[in-house]
Amino acid sequence: MPRLGVCSWSLRPSGPSDLVDKLGMTGLNAVQLALDPIREGAWGRAETQRALSGAGVLVLSGMMGTKGEDYSTLDTIRRTGGVRPDEHWEHNLAAARDTAQLAAEMGLRLVTFHAGFIPHERSEPLRAVMLDRLRRIADRFHANGVRIGFETGQEAASTLAEALTELDHPAIGVNFDPANMILYGMGDPVAAVATLRRWIVQVHVKDANPPPAPGEWGFEVPAGAGSVRWSPFFRAVQSLPSNVDLLIERESGDARIADVRTAAALVRAHSAAPTEARP
Fold first, then answer.
1. Coil, helix or strand at residue 53
2. What is residue 13's three-state secondary structure?
3. Domain segments of the chain: what residues?
4. How far apart are CA 82 and CA 155, in angstroms?
5. How far apart are CA 127 and CA 117, in angstroms?
6. Which of 154, 238, 148 has the alpha carbon at shortest distance from 193?
7. Alpha-carbon dihedral 260, 265, 273, 60, rounded to 10 degrees
8. CB 179: neighbour CB atoms within 10 A?
9. Which residues 6+ apart lie within 8 Å of 48 measured at CB?
10. Cα(107)–Cα(48) distance, rounded to whole angstroms?
11. Torsion 79-80-81-83 (CA) sign
12. Running DSSP on this structure, what letter comes out for residue 261?
C-alpha cells in the first residue's frame, strides 16, 4: 500500500523542531525532506534526524534545489530551471555530489529535483547538453546507492519519456506532480501517468488550474479545488507496476496546515487507503 506524507517545505518550517510541531498539526507522520538546509549548514544533520526520529517521523525521500532558478515567468524558469544554466552548472554538480552523499548517510534511497526544460527535438544542441548533465548527476547518486526522480511539468510527458529512454539509467525515475503538468500547460496528468508509468517512483499530491492564456502561469489551488481529475488520477497511480509514496505538496497560500489536511482527506477518499508511515 502507498504511504502518505507531506513535503517539508510546504510547511515553511524554521528548523527541525518547528517541522515536527507543524507536521503534528497535519495529522501525518512522514515527510519528503528538503536537504538543502542540511547540506548548506542551516540545519544540523544530527539535530534534524534526532528531532524527526524522536517524534516518530519517517523521512520517505529527500529534495534537492538547484541554483539560480527564477520562477517569475514561464520564460525565466525555462532559461534558469534545473541544471540548464551554464553559469551554475559546476555549482549544481558539486551540490548534487554532496547531496548524494548526505542522502546515503541519512539512509535515504530517493531524492527528487527539477531537471530543467529538456528540448524535444533531438537536433537541438541543448538537448544533448542537458542529458549529459543529468547522466553525470545520476552517476553520482547511483554511486551512493540513491535514486533520483525528475519532477514532471516542464516538458510534455512524451518529451520526458523520450529523454528517459535515451538516458536509460538505473538511478533515474520520475517524481510525478499532476499540478505541474497543468501549471506549465503540458497536458492532461492522467494521460501523462500512462506515458511515464514505468519510471514513476513517487507522486506529489498538488492541484492547479490552467494558465489563462498561452505563455502564462497556471494557478496552484488547494487539492480538490483545481483541474486535476483525482478519481481517474488515483486509479492510474494504483495501476503502476509498484507502489509509490504519495507526498502532499502546497507551495502557495497562507493556510498550509489546513490545506495539507484537506489534501490528506482527499487522498483517503479517492484512493485505496494509504498506510500510515511507520519508522
1. helix
2. coil
3. 3-276
4. 13
5. 9
6. 238
7. 0
8. 27
9. 16, 33, 38
10. 13
11. positive
12. H
Number of Cβ atoms within 10 Å of the Cβ of 117: 22
Q: Which residues contact 59 (CB under 8 A, 6 or more apart)?
A: 30, 31, 32, 33, 52, 106, 108
Find, among 279, 257, 273, the residue nearest to 8 by Cα: 257
Structure confidence by residue, pLDDT tens digits, 19-74: 999 999 999 999 999 999 999 999 999 999 999 999 999 999 999 999 988 888 88
Closest C-alpha to 112, from 7, 236, 234: 7
24 contact partners, CB below 8 Å, separation of at least 6: 55
Task: Tell which residue, 82, 78, 67, has the closest CA to residue 36.
Answer: 67
pLDDT 10s digits, 197-218 = 999 999 999 999 998 888 888 9
Nearby residues of 249 by Cβ (< 8 Å), 6 or more positions away: 6, 7, 10, 177, 179, 204, 205, 206
Query: How far is the C-alpha of 132 from the C-alpha of 150, rounded, in Å?
Result: 15
Look at 233 and 213; give whichever has higher pLDDT. 233
Q: What are the helix (H) ranges across the chain?
A: 16-26, 36-39, 45-54, 74-80, 89-105, 125-143, 157-167, 178-183, 189-196, 230-238, 256-270
The dihedral region occupied by 148, where left means phi > 0, alpha psi between -120 and 50, and beta the remainder, is beta
* Four-residue CA torsion sign, 227, 252, 33, 175: positive
Instruction: Look at strands 219-221 and 207-209 and give their pairing.
Output: antiparallel
How far apart, in whole angstroms, are the C-alpha atoms of residue 66 and residue 92? 6
CATH of domain 3-276: 3.20.20.150
